[in-house]
Amino acid sequence: MGSDTSRNVTIAMIARLAGVSVPTVSRVINGRTDVAPQTRERVEELLTRHGYRRRLASRRPSSALIDLVFNDLDSPWAVEIIRGVEDVAHSNGAGTVVSAIHQRTSSAKQWLDNMRTRSTEGIIFVTSMVAPPLQAELRRLNLPVVIVDPAGVAPQEAPTIGATNWAGSLEANQYLLGLGHRRIGFIAGPPQLMCSRARLDGYRAALDAVGVAVDDALIRPGNFYHESGYAAGVQMLALPDPPTAIFASSDQMALGVYEAVRKRGLRVPDDVSVVGFRRPARGAVVLPAADHRPSSRWPRWACWPHVPCCDSPGARRSRALASNSPPNSSSATAPGRRPARAEPSRTR
């Protein structure tokens, strides 16, 4: 069909040919998901055959947006990520839209519908499970995606930024062992997640390296949230031979342990040392937890596929950032013991 005719193609004409309503064609054009697959295919075929020209929103660099999507926003670490992404995005003339989907399909769908209405240049998922249907829709929209600290297996085509889970856990527990602790409790994350398994393996490796037997009574399940950390802390502190230190697989669970220690009438770190895997924002909480994540570097690497001005990591599709465990006020020498020499691991 010639260019003169293609300019005269209207949504009403496509709707009439497809045997559907005008709003249905509009939903297809705007990428809405609430259209039956067969109907969408028929409308798309007619749009292509008749050369319908979709109106493209003008995108000036100053109006570009990056969607930043969390499961939840109740972690102080989320504030650090938001601040870092906004700093990088704004310095490159882009804005940010922050959303929380709360691990609910309905919230993810609502976010997706809202996202289609704005000029989004790309998406950053933080500690999120990107479900296959959502992956498929994002591929169809051809939007660049980066996953920060992926929960589970990330889509192969999506760049990821994560921590060295095994090495970070190993080093944190070596640090506690170096302070003389031999009864170290461990609060795990969801067992189906690879990061949880890696952190548990790092804990076991640290104990094994100095000949400390793993006591299954000191390993408790968790889900990365405050409540599970509190419950695990209560259980371990009630043992006949309780731990002198507890390593939690997340900062939120570490804060739950703090509460359990306080309600037991004990003090951190005088009676119990507590270390968590993530570092809360400095000053955001009264109780210090862990210091493991070099999160100041994450936002720039998360933004690079979306903001052309950002330094590109080149061909690397994923980055695993080395964790560290410097001394902090939540850990101390084990009661009644002198610090042992435990050489911290060096991760690259």
How does this structure look, described?
The chain is of the alpha/beta class and 348 residues long. It has three domains: 3-49, 434 Repressor (Amino-terminal Domain) (Orthogonal Bundle), CATH 1.10.260; 62-158, 3-Layer(aba) Sandwich (Rossmann fold); 165-290, Rossmann fold (3-Layer(aba) Sandwich), CATH 3.40.50. Helices cover 38% and strands 13% of the residues. It has helices at 3-6, 11-18, 22-29, 37-49, 76-91, 105-116, 132-141, 165-178, 194-209, 226-237, 251-263, 298-303; strands at residues 65-70, 95-100, 120-126, 145-148, 160-163, 184-187, 219-220, 245-248, 273-276, 318-321. The strands form two sheets. The protein has a six-stranded parallel sheet with strand order 2-1-3-4-5-10, with helices on both faces. Helix 9 links the parallel strand 6 (184-187) and strand 7. The longest helix has 16 residues, at 76-91. The termini are far apart.
